[in-house]
Amino acid sequence: MKDLVCLHAGTSGPSTWDRFVPEFEGLGYRVRCPALLGHGTAPRRRPYRLSDFRDQVLSELDGPVTLVGNSLGAFVASAVAVAEPDWVERLVLEEIPVPPRNAQDGSPTTRHLPSLVLRAAGLLTRGRCDPRLLDDVMTDLRRPNPAWWTGLPEVGAPTLILAGGPKSHLDQSRFALLANSMPNATIRTVDAGHRIHSARPGRWLAEVKPFLAFKSA
Fold first, then answer.
1. Which residues lie closer than 8 Å to 182 by C-beta, 6 or more apart?
2. What is the pLDDT of residues 1-46, one digit of tens each?
3. What burial letters (b/e) apply to 166-202, b meaning 16+ CB within 10 Å?
4. Are 77 and 148 in contact (CB under 8 A)?
5. Are 207 and 160 in contact (CB under 8 A)?
6. Residue 109 DSSP symbol
7. What pTM value is reported for the model?
């Protein structure tokens, strides 16, 4: 049986994948949906760095895995693949924030939200996560990440990049930059905004399920 790990977005939680777990199990996967740092019962410790989320997931892996992620979870999935490309069999990156390549490159988002606004948004979700987490994560995502970019060409796993279209706050043009840096990536657009799997679950599953299907030995 193959392992599949679903990684949720920032301020979300593992339950966001509940409706899809039976579908993945029906494909022959053993499914895990961990809570990322700062969410639910997972440890809360600042600052929240992208590398900490990556290391958390890496520490919980014990062999080859397929990774499915949304937003922060998608970036963490990609970072795991960059760190250990031989461990990752397939990647589904839903609305992944694509960080700058250098100081001259663009932001992952189409609009810049001040720290005060991000902290206020965090307070609205404090029951689910550390209210300071969102500000930390967005600050880190806006920093140039040349090491991540350098590692992408080594990620040979088939990769499905799901774009949410113009309703999303992410810069959709950056997905092509990502796909062009990976040897086996495909972009599919579902006009549903940032959380495609929540807004259009049927369409999301129609894209993802055939991509994840495999023939058992």
1. 152, 153, 155, 159
2. 899 999 999 999 999 999 999 999 999 999 999 999 999 989 998 8
3. eebebbbebbeebbebbeebebbbbebbbbbbeebee
4. no
5. yes
6. B
7. 0.93
